TrEMBL record:
It comes from Paeniroseomonas aquatica. InterPro entries: DUF2798. Pfam families: DUF2798 (PF11391). This is DUF2798 domain-containing protein. Keywords: Membrane, Transmembrane, Transmembrane helix. The chain crosses the membrane at residues 7-27, 39-61.
Amino acid sequence: MIPARFTAVLFPLVMTFFMAGVVSLLLTVVNLGMPAGFLLLWLANWGLAWLFAFPAAMLAIPLARRIVGWMTAAPGA
């Protein structure tokens, strides 16, 4: 089992894995349809998307938390 202290890295790693897969699948189908060799093309697009999505998420998560903090009221306020 992986120690809980790695949650801050593991959560975006897993989340971007799924998000990059879904988005790359959608964009591949919309732009190309289902050509011969679709699976390999999609997997290549997925890998490229994930390569960018994970570091982007690591940078965006703290900013998103701050923005959401500004948008919401503190408990009891």
